[in-house]
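Fold this complex.
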Amino acid sequence: MTTLRDAFGQLRRLRLVELQLLITVLLFFAAGYLLVVVATGQSELQTTFQGLLHILWPSSLPLVLFLAISLGLSLRSPTADQLILPLVALLGGLSLMMTARLEPGLNQIAFCSNAAGERFPCYEGIATKQTLWVTLGTLIMAAILFTPLDQICIRWFRHSFIDVLDHYRYMWLALGMILILATFIFGVDPNASGVRVWFNLGFFYFQPSELLKIILVIFMASYLNEYREAVQSSYRLGPFTLPPLPYLVPLIGMWGIAMMTIVFQRDLGAALLLFGVFLIMLYAATRRSLYVIAGVTAFAGGAYILYRLLPIVGLRVSVWLDPWATAQGSGYQIVQAIYALASGGVFGAGLGRGVPEYVPAVHTDFIFVAIGEEMGLAGTLAVLIAYMLLIFRGYHLALAIPGRFRGFEQLLVIGLTSIIAVQTLIILGGNLRLIPLTGITLPFISYGGSSIVINFLIVALLLRISVSDQRY
Amino acid sequence: MKWRRFLAIPLLAVVLGLLGYGILLPVEQEPLWLLLLWIGGPLAGVVLLSWLDTSTPTSDLARTVSRVGTVIMIGFLMLSLQLLRQQFVQASAISNHVVVSVDGSTTSNVRPVLATQRVLRGTILDRRGRILTESVLINGIARRVYPLADQYDMTAFGHILGFFSPRYGQSGLEAVYNEYLSGERGNEWQLLLSEWTGETQRGNDLTLTLDAELQARVAALLGDRRGAVVVLDPRSGAILALVSRPGFDPSQLVVNPAASDLTAERQRVSDYWAALNRDDAGQPLLNRATQGRYPPGSTFKTVTAVAVLEYWLQSQPDQISCPNEYYPQPDAPPIVNAVDNLGAQIGEPATLERVYAFSCNTAFAQYAVRLGADRLAEVAQRFNIFLPNRLPAGFRPLRDLPSEPSLLSVQADFLRQPRALADTGYGQGQLLVSPLQMALVAAAIGNDGVMMQPYLVQRVTRPDGSTIWQAGPTSIRRVMSGQTARLMRSYMAAVARYGFGRSISQFVNQPVGGKSGTAEHLPGAPPHAWFIALGPIDTPRYAVAVVIEQGGEGSGVAARLAGEVLAAAFALEE
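Structure:
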């Protein structure tokens, strides 16, 4: 009798909303993936169960892992947020679907040659690799959610996991700077993009600036939380009321150094992202719109200086204002992207029926355009809505945390969510010509190991913080 | 706080107005739309923020985070608006947008081109069912092939079929009948089915009135000379041969996707294109038979003669003389004949038949003056040779191919001068006539005075063989009475029997008729040689017009060519 009651008790704790949504996402993915594989002629459609499974395996592995994580959360921490996981699964599934669709298209037109002069398709195997990255990201997420990190951290550092992140902020910052500086020495440029910001780790290329954005958010959250009262107050110097300069200057200084190194590497997208996240966190902590105005003004000045100094910035701006003028040169990519989006129309050409591969970097920076061509306005708006829900879920999470006792976590969640929000806005703004294009990935969807792994790390941190949230 | 709420409504209206106006702007004004979007988006943000501030927040953090959220939402809203414009409002305008940059390179959407390569375009067949061009699939890419290429010189067929190239566009029937050939028209249901099932889209077939064998032989007879030949059936208007030289080979403009070296294959095609467009190539892409306009020379005396017969009282056909010089206008130089002392050859009394047979300029100049400008223009217009101010807008003599209308004069009031009227009467002046139109003049005489609408495509059929539409003989109008037509045929027979065109009779074993023409076009340059002919002359089955640019005497080279063409047509009947 007691065992039965226990079993019912367990069942009641089942995270049904999340589970239902995840199964919906899995079905959506399965249907889309089958369509893609059959439409691009990679496989014949076999309507037996084994036949379908043969096509879907192993690409559906990450989504199955999501289900496992959901069940695991039901057991361990049923109060964790139930919407974040399905939204991430949806975007991750879309990523697998689109890379599987783009690989055969790219293989037909993009050829590289090696030192021996042999020609081979440049993007052979990106679908398999992307499955690997998403699986890896999911596993990392599971690891952060299910390993007893708090116990480990208490044993080693005498602090809980979150406190370790909080207290060792200068160490984290130093680590991040070392990583960035190391790219100056060891950095490689595997896909000839003009910036050497990757490490060759043998089995994959890692982009440390991706990690740096998390580190800087941790640092900032910790710093602002510690000096929260100080930065909110004003600083009096004689008759003038000034911002609390003694506290702000080191912050701005350190952040500035990090940004300078990235700008020096011409990784403008990452710099823009960090600056945006910096402003949001500063505003959230201080509640002073003056800082935002000052920051935007400083940004405008800095952008103008960069515009005059760096020819690449000038080029990006002129391409942004009139891509048609250089449609065969520097404007080629954006012009092709405009054509692809417009050809999609409202309902799209259909998965596997368009030709998005003519847009350069369509599997990384411009993957949204491929979605737009093949799934149309309906698909692009759906993706935008998914991002909005994810972002607002993140902010909602921050507001649910009692700030008086857990201010660090609160600011951390705001910062991490803002990373996703600002990064999405920057790359989609670039794709859709709202702002000059800067090379940066679309979170969860673009092809690329570092980006996928880091974004899953962000989600893992969000979920973990939501786990320890005891619901008011 | 209250003033803000009152301000919000008009502000919102302004925002909606700006965005609504901007989203409809054409592609060329994209920067203005972006500017409006960047004004409208932040303004909408201000409105939203003012509304947020009026609701009581639970905490300070909730207020700041909701403001941050609003800014991000505005960002997504702007993205959505841009998507709405690019994928819905202006989608078709953007996807069809073509840009020519400063260096002359053209940028356009590659997708329509790729879509055409996935369509199995329809087959084009001649009147005997021989395949002139068809599409085959190679590696999933549809490609035009020309099965007759090993049998005939394909340059003879270039102007009719036209080329079909993803790079250079389309011409000829491929362009005019593109919607039928691609299947977009006439077969909508099948198109919808193939769209859904992913089957290869198939186009509709064209059956022509053309005789491929005759077309090839006529092109060979014209050889390397620049010029044009039209052969049509006067009873129906069906075009049997339509040759323009120099020609081009449409198969040379097709890239073979199965070629071992694709780069070299593409180079071959672009070299051929460049050669066609060279200044000294003689405009091979121009269809001289329908688009070429020449002074018709003495062949136009046929039109004047018809006018003379139709206005018998005013022009007194048989009260005529053929002086060596004729002064229609005292202050202008006289009109002379091509041959001295032509009057002696014609003999006394001169008749319309004899002055027509010996092509007497001074006689026809007198006729034109007797008729007056209005009557001559009226009869010419019956033949669809127009004064420029009477030309119907968008008039095309032949609907199946690009064609130019023929003109009686370039200036509307040219014929007001007696000298100009007299010149026009014997085929000079400012006349500009296409070979097709001169063939139709002969054809109208051959068809007892009724001019038939010329046509080249007789049937459009679906891939399953059912007919979409069929063209049959339709008359344009009665141009002259049957009596006039009979008389004209006897005059044309006289030309071939004893007049300045008798050499045509050496080549044909049946009685034929015709009229030669030697058209001056540039002082000092050799004249264009013309000949129009009907054969057999009593019940004509063929109307022929021949022009050889700078060929010399019409009664020589052109008469000979017309004879050979008629002989070829007769030979193919057996």
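Chain B touches chain A through 46 residues (CB under 8 Å).
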